[in-house]
Alpha-hemoglobin-stabilizing protein (Enhydra lutris kenyoni), 92 residues
Amino acid sequence: MALLQANKDLISTGMKEFNVLLNQQVFPNPPIPEEAMVTMVDDWVNFYINYYRKQMAGEQQEQERALQELEQELRTLSAPFLTKYRAFLKSF
């Protein structure tokens, strides 16, 4: 079953906003440990999931599927950011 268009639109909006958040990040000097950055990114993902949970349309099953898709997309977007941060840490 396909996701409702309203939920697809929310997922798209969430991805765009999350990408802006990632692109705005300036790596700290002195750097924080990799584990701390991973925790921060996980917190950001959870924040977005909780924010959009209240806005998802449809029955409970539809909402859960849409939230799972949003989470997957946000984690996919965060992977290159974390790779870049790991490279940043290696430069020290």
